Amino acid sequence: MLAAQDVFNPSHYAGCRRPLEQAETLPPWCYYDEEFYRAEVEHIFMKVWNFLGRSDRIPNPGDYFTVNYVGVPLIIVRGKDKVVRAFSNTCRHRGARVAEDKGNCRAFVCPYHGWVYDLDGALKGANGMEKAENFDRSQYGLVPVRLEEWGGFIFVNFDADAEPLLDYLGDAPEQLASYDCENLVTTRLTSFELDCNWKLYIENAMEEYHLPFVHKSTLNLKDFDHGIIPAEGNWDAIREKHEGTRALLEEDKQHGLPRIKTLEGPPAEGTHYVVLYPSTMLGMTTDSVWWLELHPMGPNKTKLIVGTCFPKETVERPDFEEKAKYYYKRWDKSIGEDNDVSDIQHEGVTSPFAKPGRLSHHEPLVHHIANWVIDRVVGNRPPA
Ligand code: FES
Ligand SMILES: [Fe+2]
Predict the structure, then answer these.
(1) Which of 98, 127, 161 is the last residue of a domain?
(2) Alpha helices in the chain (DSSP H)
(3) Looking at residues 4-22, what average pLDDT do you find?
(4) How far is the CA of 300 from the centre of ligand 2 (A)?
(5) At residue 146, does pLDDT exceed 80?
(6) What mean pLDDT comes out for the span 68-75?
(7) What is the CATH number of the domain that holds 84?
């Protein structure tokens, strides 16, 4: 077994720290070691703004969904005042989950002993507690979790001291403004459980080196005019200049839907493949936006949610459903291919004989992602 004695010793990461042309990949244990994963949860996912899809998933008061994010059960609910809030899905009596799956309700009733919580988290009813002394219901509401939105996208943060979402996102909202994300409508969500580490998947999403191999018959683009763009804040993007859309296969180009009418500047000239650190990818093309939302479930397991959205006026067209099928076909094909290769890669990288590899000039964001992770997981620890 080649796992290091101390996986946090900075000397193990010297190869990743070098400039891209000289850089190595992350050591293989970063993709399977339990201790490294626990440090990622503590220093990354418990601290950053975590992406949880779009708020149009719960359009009406009382609509909610639940999620388990890095081991934290959450309820995301739209209140009677239309505000979207997040709560720990943990009853304040003896800790049971108070909500399951998704739905609409007027209040959450804990399935264990029936405590009742309002949509704003307040404890409204607790039958059987009449004789409990000094029991102040107002102190036993569901524990809120910070939630902020940008462009209709929901983010939660477990750290009370974290910077506001817009500071975290830096100049992403400005550079991506003309996609007019507020006006997008989610048209489909699909999800997968993958036997791979979350980093493998986001790295894959942010490099084009694999396109001629993994996507040989789907996305094998000729004359690929692209580069990474300057970005301030916790994001990066590859910008590709091209005509038309990148959300249809070449063979289906005739089924295109209208362009996003607000596009201007670089977004009008092609596609942005965006990584919102640590683990979200947005594909923002000229007529639609899709996202890859990763929920780490341990070092060797990741839930992937794929969301697709189009401008409101596109979704209202009578031919939308018919044409959207071709977009879904493209996403299903390419994402299936990426899912398959993530399995293949994860099994290889967890071999006791796996060693750090070298990076190509086609993989600058794989290098960024590795260094972003090391900054937080290794950089936060006292030197050995
Ligand atoms: S654990 Fe919820 S009411 Fe008892
Ligand atoms: Fe891919």
Answers:
(1) 161
(2) 14-17, 34-40, 165-169, 172-175, 198-205, 211-214, 312-315, 320-349, 364-377
(3) 91
(4) 19
(5) yes
(6) 98
(7) 2.102.10.10
- Report angle CA 90, 103, 191 to the nearest 5 degrees: 90
**133 and 222 fall within a common domain:** no
Domain membership of residue 145 as a residue range: 50-161
Name which of 25, 31, 27, 30 is nearest 300 in CA terms: 31
Residue partners of 178: CB distance under 8 A and separation at least 6: 260, 262, 263, 264, 265, 267, 268
Mean pLDDT of 2-29: 90
- Position 382 in a domain: no
Ligand 1 atom with the smallest distance to the CA of 96 is: 1
Task: Report the residue count for the chain.
Answer: 384
Q: What digits encode the pLDDT tens for the residues 85-116?
A: 999 999 999 999 999 999 999 999 999 999 99
DSSP character at residue 44: I
Residues 129 and 152 in one domain: yes
Q: Are residues 146 and 281 in the same domain?
A: no
What predicted TM-score, i.e. pTM, was given to this entire model?
0.96
Under the banding of pLDDT at 50, 70 and 90, the label for residue 217 is confident
Is position 168 within any domain?
no
Mean pLDDT across 231-246: 97
Give yes or no for residue 111 CB within 6 A of ligand 1.
no
Indicate if ligand 1 lies below 6 Å from the C-beta of 96: yes
Is 277 within the bounds of a domain?
yes
Task: Name the residue of 75, 88, 91, 142 whose CB sits within 8 Å of the most ligand 1 atoms, as the mutation to test its pocket.
Answer: 91
Å from CA of 101 to ligand 1 middle: 18
Percentage of the residues of the chain whose pLDDT score is greater than 90 = 94
